[in-house]
Amino acid sequence: MTKGQIEDVIAKSVTKFYFKLLGVGPRETRVYLLRDMIIIRLKGKLLPIEEHLLKSSQGVELVKDIRKFLHESTVKGVSELIKSTTGHSVISSHSDISTKSGEIFQVYILDKDYESEIPNSSG
Questions:
Q1: CA dihedral over 59, 20, 83, 117, signed as positive or negative
Q2: How many domains does the chain have?
Q3: 27 within domain boundaries
Q4: Which of 85, 71, 77 is nearest to 7 (CA)?
Q5: What's residue 122's pLDDT?
Q6: Residues of the chain with pLDDT > 70: what percent?
């Protein structure tokens, strides 16, 4: 597979994963493979309950805490999707959400520079 095909497979798998788990999925999922990192950008809107929570002074931190917990509870499943596509294990992950746009940014660090293994990769 090419780098673009790998990124596409992961994007589609992650979108399906979140839709199946949460009943809603991102409007758009972009995946970028860079050396030993899989970068996932999930575009969508905040859930109605999150929009409601943001009306209070404690809402921003509460929404970020909820999303942090959600990331921690889904990292194993997403890591398995990444491993089944790349053949490499995820050794760490990081995530953040914009409480203004609802966009989520996730980074999964692999155990090896996967990009260098892809034939004709321009990395």
A1: negative
A2: 1
A3: yes
A4: 85
A5: 54
A6: 98
Supply the CATH number for residue 101's domain.
3.30.980
Tokens of 117: 């293994």
**Residue 123 falls inside a structural domain:** no
| pTM greater than 0.85 (yes/no) | yes
Bridging pattern class, strands 37-43 and 28-34: antiparallel
- Structural domain includes residue 77: yes
The string over 43-71, giving b where at least 16 C-beta atoms fall within 10 Å of a residue's C-beta and e elsewhere, is ebebeeebeebbeeeeeeeebeeebeebb
Domain extent for 55: 3-110
Contact 7, 121 (CB under 8 A): no
Q: Is residue 32 part of a domain?
A: yes
Which distant-in-sequence residues (6+ apart) come within 8 Å of 50 by Cβ? 63, 66, 99, 102
Residue closest to 39 by CA, chosen among 90, 87, 101, 99: 90
